[in-house]
């Protein structure tokens, strides 16, 4: 989350912003990000920065695997994670998405 703060503050400053209003974050279902805790932590590290008071908006991306046996993609259970093909039942799968964690947009403002 410190990275999110740093990226956001740098981006905002580069754009002449004095305040960050909202940060939208994409988090994969397997990224272990719990929005509630991430928000609390962000408030703590963002205190006394231009990101103080910013709203965090989380978009959860489903976890997907691709099957090495039938070649099809399927969305998997994540709680707990089940790495298995939904089409043929094979466990010979590779993760294609679900662990991403990135800032997708930052809403900035200028106080006057
Ligand atoms: Zn399969």
Helix and strand topology:
Layout: H1 2-14, E1 19-28, H2 35-46, E2 55-61, E3 64-67, E4 73-75, E5 93-97, E6 101-109
Parallel strand pairs: 1-2
Antiparallel strand pairs: 1-6, 3-4, 3-5
Bound molecules: zinc ion.
Radius of gyration: 18 Å
Mean pLDDT: 93
Strand line-up of the largest beta sheet:
2-1-6
Low-confidence stretches: none
Quaternary organization = single chain
Question: With helices defined by DSSP (H or I, 4 residues minimum), what is the helix count?
Answer: 2
Q: Just give the CATH class.
A: Alpha Beta
User: What fraction strand?
Assistant: 25-35%
State the CATH architecture. Answer: 2-Layer Sandwich
Taken together, the total number of domains comes to 1
**Helix coverage percent of residues?**
10-25%
Q: What order do the helices and strands follow?
A: HEHEEEEE
User: How far do the termini sit from each other?
Assistant: 29 Å
The CATH topology turns out to be hypothetical protein PF0899 fold
